Amino acid sequence: CSDGLPQRTTSLAKEAEDGLELQFATNVLGSFMLMRELLPTFSRGARVVLVASQLANGLKLDDLQSSTLQPYHPIAVYSASKQAIRMLAAEAPRRGFSNAGVIVTACHPGVVTSELLRTLGIATGPDRAEMAAQTPLKLALDAPPESGTYHVDKKPHPCKFATDVRAREELWRKCDELAYKCIQESQSALQA
Q1: Using one digit for the tens of pLDDT, what is the confidence trace for 93-111?
Q2: Architecture of the domain made up of 22-191
Q3: What are the catalytic residues?
Q4: What is the reported pTM?
């Protein structure tokens, strides 16, 4: 999800059916759950490319769903979700992905015309979709990159969010707890 799900409203967070903030649920928890659940099926050498953003910033580990952000600001929530994506990519090698031979990276694909830009009042992005696809495709198909790294313009790029191991561990733990809760609730709903 490079475009995320920015909301035009600035007063209330948009909630998914399960009560989670929609951008967090889609951009972070959805990516986390898919990556984690597919790990046992990956072959050695498989790659996971998470789409982040240069807008990544502002994640509060004590408020992952931005419930205390008043007024609700969709771009701030989007930025926090993309910071979380970068942190999850950096933490994944320590969580069994490296042992399984799976490479996990994150990247900023570029800035293309999107609903997010329209929300910001920008009609068009400077990059064409074909250009924006180059970094994720390079990470998926070319010589294996180092797992846990962040890339911009097809090159490794320093990521300040990757250096705080405790914060990464806490984010992973909280995502794991929320994923477990979502799975339990889904199973209960199916049995009802």
Answers
A1: 999 999 999 999 999 998 7
A2: 3-Layer(aba) Sandwich (3.40)
A3: 78
A4: 0.85
